[in-house]
# Entry
Amino acid sequence: MKYYSTNHQTPDVTLQEAVVKGLAADKGLYMPERIHALPTTFYEQMPQMNLQEVAFEVAKAFFGEDIPADKLRQIVFDTMSFDIPLVKVSNNIYSLELFHGPTLAFKDVGARFMARMLGYFVGKQQNTVNVLVATSGDTGSAVANGFLGVEGIHVYVLYPKGKVSLIQEKQFTTLGKNITALEVDGTFDDCQRLVKSAFMDAELNAHMKLTSANSINVARFLPQAFYYFWAMAQFESKKYSLNNKEIVCCVPSGNFGNITAGLFGKRMGLPIKRFIAANNQNDIFYQYLKTGQYNPRPSVATIANAMDVGDPSNFARVLALYDNSHKAICRDIKGATYTNEEIADEIRRVYETNGYLLDPHGACGHRALREDLGPNETGFFIETAHPAKFKDTVEGIIGKEINIPQRLQDFMKGTKQSIEMSSSFEDLKAYLLTE
Ligand SMILES: *Cc1c(COP(=O)(O)O)cnc(C)c1O
# Structure
């Protein structure tokens, strides 16, 4: 399968090139040239299959031409090794819990898959590939844990000293093995600048093979389609009675990678009637749906901070998927936007009336369904992270202490190991040249 750039100014590439490069040379995002619909027989069998089997069938439609079936099966089965249960919250609203992975957020799926796929391609090349990633907190933990122990790859996580929470820091500084944490005396922007300089430095690139694990990488983005199929498999497995209602899916959205993967699923025949993209106050997409104008603007900080995005990078993929048609996009996707107060109210309300504790991102998803579902519809939202990841915010809202899952507590017990450095590129370069 060939991959094209959404900017159409560079030649098409192979899957391997798309995965190793990440971003196209013309700064566009890679898209598969074709999206295969899955056969009716697959949809008939889906309710009897388990998560890994469902994911493998979807993965074959994307990657089957480029990776031998046994290798692909291994990558999928290793990636999808934790539960993704569909849990009933209220009468007609369900939560697809994507927080049962190593770092308790949905990004574990894409990060784990990409690590294994890159490991496969690297294995064919014989020399170690070095992943450089700058983080303001959560991306670093998902990427570091996703790549932990993957042969042929070393990960350097650059993070701003004193500017990430203790639990976030523990999630990527305590791992050891092929993960090195670089504690930069500066800001997140400094870390990003260092990574960019490293990719452009000829001497460094001659010394070591460098790549990024950016969230726009096709190997992080496409696997997110797996769990939309798995949600439908759970609905149809008679675990829950659908009573012939149509399914609506709501995705709390920031950079729009997650929802775009769901839209791919719909294109492959998944019977989801429509989608809702739930925004916080950074409602650039919501405004686009209303006006047809895409006006990026600087992000503002909210309590659903993983969605504080002012220029969603995957918007280009949404446009490509719908041939730039605002009308076609509006047929499949509706928008919603919530203030901090509305998000907090939703967390409190659902906790008190349904006994279900939402995180601030999932709260946007639940609220949009509650306000928008019609009488003949049933909805599920993607619960993108565990509420304990936002402990202080959530405890402040419900006025109670919450349980911290064992996996998070285990990270807290680990010993921090990091290499301190200044924010000057010369220091980073000197360090990497000795590696
Ligand atoms: C990354 C993230 C989002 C936003 O997902 P996109 O794919 O960028 O739209 C939502 N919630 C949480 C908890 C996240 O970490």
Observations:
- The chain has 20 helices and 13 strands.
- Residues 105, 107, 138, 252-258, 306-307, 361, 384-385 surround pyridoxal-5'-phosphate (CB under 6 Å).
- The radius of gyration is 21 Å.
